């Protein structure tokens, strides 16, 4: 095992070791009956994360850090700011080989959960925010997908209640403090990468820890154009 592989293995092991608080799912540790395809879902998502980091770790030019994992994104894909349809090769814009080399990833969500529709049942979840962020990264021939690492300041999935786990909620202050530990580790493993906070929660948390970063608006709620302009002014 190379030094980089060892670093990735240790980093992912640390993520896996995080014990979820109430109303939080750690996609790389927690199997949830009725939502995941089976206990193997945890291993699949962990493998996706390792494969995603391998071509980027210590080489990435930018680390984009959003707020938290969403149920349409890394909750089931295992890759931050990336949906199941992207990792499985069922997305119109993002080919799975832009995410990791080799075979397509594997779906981990059951086809009949939350807000089912034909596309979700057939191909898994798609996340609008992920599509906007990936689309901006891919819009310039100057950059390669491997120049970027996507992450979240709270890299786990906070949801509203046990009755409705297919929801997203804002992380608590304590959860954000937990998440900073992983952001710092990622920075240490990529010392030449510039940090780009997506949204206010991420930016405020990094600022409170005196971590140097750029700040761009979150593209949700009609702010995609502002997000795109801000990103282009940086990269």
Fold and architecture overview:
The chain is of the alpha/beta class. It has a single domain, classed as Uracil-DNA glycosylase-like domain (Uracil-DNA Glycosylase, subunit E, 3-Layer(aba) Sandwich). The protein is 40% helix and 11% strand. It has ten helices and six strands, in the order αβαβαααααββαβαβα. The protein has a four-stranded parallel β-sheet with strand order 3-2-5-6, with helices on both faces. A two-stranded antiparallel ribbon has the order 1-4. Helix 9 (200-208) links the parallel strand 5 and strand 6 (214-216). The protein is globular and about 40 Å long.
Percent of sequence in beta strands: 5-15%
Q: Ranges with pLDDT <50 over ≥5 residues?
A: none
CATH top level label: Alpha Beta
Q: If you compute it from the alpha carbons, what radius of gyration comes out, rounded to the nearest whole angstrom?
A: 16 Å
Number of domains: 1
Largest sheet: 4 strands, parallel
Number of helices: 10
Overall shape: globular
CATH architecture: 3-Layer(aba) Sandwich
> How are strands sequenced across the largest beta sheet?
3-2-5-6
At CATH level 3, the topology is Uracil-DNA Glycosylase, subunit E
Q: Please name the fourth-level CATH homologous superfamily.
A: Uracil-DNA glycosylase-like domain
- The helix fraction, in percent, is 25-40%
Order of helices and strands: HEHEHHHHHEEHEHEH
Quaternary organisation of the protein chains:
single chain
Category from helices, strands and their pairing: alpha/beta
Gap between N and C termini: 33 Å
Mean pLDDT: 94
Protein name: Uracil-DNA glycosylase-like domain-containing protein
InterPro entries: Uracil-DNA_glycosylase-like_sf
